[in-house]
Design goal:
Layout: H1 7-17, E1 65-66, E2 71-78, H2 96-102, E3 108-110, E4 116-118, E5 123-130, E6 136-142, H3 156-165, H4 169-173, H5 187-191, E7 201-205, E8 208-213, H6 240-244, E9 249-252, E10 257-260, H7 266-276, E11 289-295, E12 300-305, E13 316-317, E14 320-327, H8 333-339, E15 344-348, H9 351-363, E16 366-381, H10 391-400, H11 403-411, E17 415-417, H12 427-439, H13 447-456, E18 474-477, H14 479-483, E19 492-493, E20 499-502, E21 504-510, H15 514-524, H16 527-531, E22 535-541, H17 543-551, E23 567-573, H18 601-609, H19 619-636, E24 639-652, E25 655-656, H20 666-672, E26 674-675
Helix pairs in contact: 10-13, 11-15, 12-19, 18-19
Amino acid sequence: MKKIAALLLAIVMVLSLAACGGEGNNNPAGTPPSTSDDPKDSDSSMPDTPQAPVDENLQFPLPATIQHDVDGTVIIATTSNMNGNFEVDQFGGTDTIAYKLIHNYHISVNDREGNLVVNPQVVRSMDTQENADGSKTYTITVWDDLYYNDGTQITAKNFVAYPLLFSSPVAVAAGGYGIAGKYFDGYTAFHAGETEVFAGIRLLDDFTFSYTVTAENTPFYYELNILNCSQYSRCYPIDYKTWIGEEYDIADDGNGCYITGGEFTAEKLSQHVNDTRYNWQAVRTAGPYKFKNVDLTAQVVELTVDPMYKGNFEGYKPSIENVVIKYVNTATMLDSLKTGEVTLIEGLNTGEMINAALDLETGGGYNTTSYLALQYFKLFFQCDWGPQQFIPVRQAVAYLLDREGLVNTIMQGYGSVVDAPISKEYWMYKESEEEMMERLNAYTFNVDKAVELLVSDGWIYDENGNDYVSGIRWKQVTQEEYDRGDPDNRCKKLDDGTILMPLVLTWAAYEGNAATESIDILLAQAKTTEEAGMKIERTTMAGAELLKYLNRSPAPGEQYAQPTYSFLNLSTGLKTIFDQTYRFTLDPDLILNNKNRCFDEELDRLSMEMLIGMDPEDHEGFRKMWVDYNERFNYLLPEIPLYNVELYTIYSDHIQGYEVTPHFTFYDAIVEAWWE
């Protein structure tokens, strides 16, 4: 039995846990209650359960305060079209900038150095208990002075709502990921719809709840992050009635949490999801800022300080009164800065733009800051259909793309090629650089190697089944390989029943992206690609549309759920916590999490065992498995990593105190900055 009654002690423990500089998914635990398949159908009071100990003398590390006069308006540029979805990312397509400024109050957060710490503005006390069956229970009491922007009090129900709702089969049927509480006791039965009660999530009183992590999921390398209940972004206390309807509520009769109020269906959830997440006036928010106005026609979102916000984990409340998010064209973005149309451009990621920004700074009136990003650019394959279902084809594409030429053209010295889904900022990379160079294939531009791979994989025919001489290569495929998808009806059946597949790849290209045109020139239109016998067809679209094809969820329309594009060009924002669990899952019920549709048992195993069963103190064990994971990824190439970048921010010198790191980014820095 190990108890942490005081939060400060918890923080000390977390600091030692996170000394590796990582970030991941964690699960809380609660003493395993007996499971009931028949929850009570009434809205009963909370069970008479012992509360977590509360330390009345607990002090915040910094008093919640406004450091400067509340004044000024920061206008931040975005080059991505906003779709108006400012809520949870369980259904894809979230407008991230606004989302991260209007939602806060996470149980744990990263500090400036990347250490994972308990958020003392949210957590009043925390108790951990190791149970006889090997499971682990986290009992958390949150402060009673947390409020939504309209003054509605935030309670324990708002915290447990996220893992409860987004673990349910109803959420999956509505197009959600369904894995928010995947490490908790009772998840399997609840997720499968075998019971309406989630045994591992408990409501203990109005401000106290517990999570129980199963023995199979302990230890967990990024243990503390389990409390945030989300692989993709930290969950927050959601205004659940807006999501599921006023007739529903959350109850716990002593056996775990469940939803009351009658039959809860995917149809009802889908209706509320679609009616709510695109209605900025409907949802209560709890962050440093709240909505002032949204004009999607003009692509402008206006936020203003939320007076109900208690403060960030360091105790700061925002001093900048308004934040405006405004769409601008990439080509004229710096001109918009000069005219005052925008006052801050975050994340400049091309050499041309960076050099132009540095020139502006030299002229006066602007400041810049930079950091090595937890981000890389990539070609993202859909590996379950078409020519790209074959590993040698994906490898051949890598050899046909001059990535060194690409990064030199685009970044002009501010980026470097990477051969796996990594940031060179990671501590694991810094300790493994030489080993990674030895074990990973660099896929240096080599047309002959690409052709060799294609020939060995059977791309040796023309469209009539004769030996290949020139033009597009064809391959004899099985009925099963054909059945995996031929949306454009390109395959041919010869008179003898032979099925031939052409080496034609379709590309969903991100419009307005600097890499798009360079990739088009260096790969899609390159003479060397044609000579290799490959054809790449480009379709350019806005980012919001591209993400719908990426997610392949039927929620926005059935057309998006069908295999359509062989690959997409994207950038990936990695997290301080390297958590790839369930990214390559083989579980058909969780298929939306495997966006690459790459089904490899070894890659799935490594992604899981890197975290689950890994002691938080075993940094060397984690590092070794991290290298193994990247080596397997590098061979399979579910995506082709392109380059890691140094990101630059340029902003008006009226903005003071703006400090960012790879782990403490715009969303954190803007809260602690001020206007002069």
